[in-house]
From TrEMBL:
InterPro entries: Cro/C1-type_HTH, Lambda_DNA-bd_dom_sf, Rad_response_metalloprotease
Protein name: Helix-turn-helix domain-containing protein
PANTHER family on file: ANTITOXIN HIGA1 (PTHR43236), BLL7220 PROTEIN (PTHR43236:SF1)
UniProt GO molecular function: DNA binding
Organism this protein belongs to: Lentzea fradiae
């Protein structure tokens, strides 16, 4: 049986795998940022959901990185948390 790294390396050679991995990473990082801001406000997921016009399960999925959000959803979350949404494109850093 292959270990996790071997399995991951094998999967990453499949077509589209790198793009899917990058999308999942971005979704996770966005979710982590929103959770951190929510916690700094001392809010529950329910409170954020109400302020953003969403449901608590939708906020939970978002914070867990389970969804790739649209710009309007990000705008609603940013507005609810009194944050500025900044979207930018930047050169890739050398790995």
């Amino acid at each position: 049986m292959a270990d996790w790294r071997q399995l991951r390396d094998q999967r990453m050679t499949e077509p589209g795998a790198e793009d899917a991995y990058d999308a999942a990473r971005i979704a996770f990082e966005l979710g982590r940022s929103v959770r951190q801001a929510r916690e700094e406000h001392g809010w529950s997921q329910t409170r954020l959901a109400e302020a953003a016009g969403m449901t608590q399960p939708a906020v939970a999925r978002f914070e867990a990185g389970g969804t790739v959000p649209t710009i309007p959803v990000l705008e609603r979350l940013a507005h609810a948390l009194d944050l500025e949404l900044v979207v930018r494109l930047a050169p890739r850093s050398a790995a």
